[in-house]
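FAQ: What does the model actually see?

It sees only this:
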Amino acid sequence: MRRFLIAFLVLSWASSSSIAVDTGSTPHGLAKDPLKFILGQENLGPWRNGVSEDAIAEAPGPELSGPHSTLVLAGNRTNRPDILSGFKHYRDGWDISNRHYWASVGFTGAFGFVLAILWFVFFGLALLVHHCCGWQMTIKDRGSPNSQRICLIMLLLFTSAAAIGCILLSVGQDEFHGEVFSTLKYVVNQSDYTVQTLRNVTEYLSLAKNISVAQVFLPSNVMSDIDRLNQDLNAAADTLAEKTSKNSGKIRRVFNAVRSTLITVAAVMLLLSLIGLLLSVLGHRHAIYLFVISGWLLVAVTFILCGIFVIFNNAISDTCMAMEEWVENPHAESALSDILPCVDQRTTNQTLVQSKQVITDIVNVVNRFIYTYANTYPAQGNLYYYNQSGPMMPPLCYPFDSALKDRQCGSQEVSIANASLVWENYTCQVSASGICTTPGRITPAIYTQLVGAVNESYALEHYAPPLLSLQNCDFVRDTFQEITAIHCPPLESHLRLVNAGLGLISIGVMLCLVLWILYANRPQREEVFAKLSLPIKVCRNFKSNTNETNINGGNNYNKNDNVRHDTESHNTSSVF
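And it is asked to produce this:
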């Protein structure tokens, strides 16, 4: 998993700004990138043709000819050994496009991977020697109750540690999963807001193209600019929505899989430790070896997972710190510059000038009609005669002066915000032929056209700031501030809890495996009874043999006495 968590959550949304989308070709045959347009690289499309170069030149901004300084993001945190560079320290800061950065982050999880390898090899060799060579792992002084009691206490202690680790892992992964999805939801909502802003501007611009007040239209070059701009805006909105949906789906699948894996590990390890404890206490020597082998493999897996989540934790901390430092220096050259190509103040002002120029063109159309036709008395038969009469109609206020700076409306002007309400008082009633039958300066049909033009000006005036916030990265900066302040701390805390759970499980089950074998091989009650009864049997056999010897000796004495008596009798009879 190359990009994860915040880098994948936030930057997958933001990085879509740097993905080229072929929406057509420029007059020079070059592919256009609508998202670069949104972020300022194409500066609101071809409206730049009508921009005042003097106004742009007066805009404050950084000197383009000055030396460019590169901002190293999270430089202190990312100063780690780089495996790919012979373990030299990596000093280029946070950069997800740099493989040396990922090598340095991966080094932080090496401890877990090394432990997994050592455990797998050495404990596997111990099991092999035990099985093939008959090497017995037993308690010294097996008949001692104290040794067995100490072994049982340690077994209960380490089993409890493994169980606590399973609980911590379950709680930590649940909180981590919830916070990840909360962060994802926030980013998706921000993306949806951006897409909706673009679509709103597109909708209003499409209506602006059709603005006509009594056959007075916008200049043809402005209408052509609007067509091309709408194409860019629609492509940008579609691309951003597509990338957001695609990336959010990938993120959900990845972290659902991570959650399932952690839940499975916690459940299996808990059952393994409890059943292993029960079998070792009951002395099932053969069954316990099956659990020992399973635990041997699962402990290696938990060590690997522990290393992976250490990498997760460091990468998230790096990303949060990088975002925090970038928020303070959004226009500095950094690793985020390629992903979020924020423009400088001069380019931002250029975009603002262009949007103001279009609003001014719309106000020109409205006031041209008011001064030329509404507030005059054309003769009957004139194309624009509809029996205009009554008080003069106030013109629409120009929101900007000749230098395109904000200006206050005059006393005889109506602002864009309340023009529709004021002009309604100057509307007459018309006959079937469209001629005014009551005093008024405009007909209801013309009033509708004027209100449409005013609404377009109002929309452009109020949607220009959101577009500018996209271009100068104010919007992204606010998003990053929200993430670093609200979402980063709990994410790091939950990851530490997951790591603590994995560590307890690994160490607890690892020590339990050894104690299972030792305690399962302790002397059973039958063996102890057999050992105690052996001397008694020996004594009984000795006594039995002694008695038999004595009896046999007495019988032999009687036999010899009888023989001697018979001999004496025989001799006596012979004498006589």
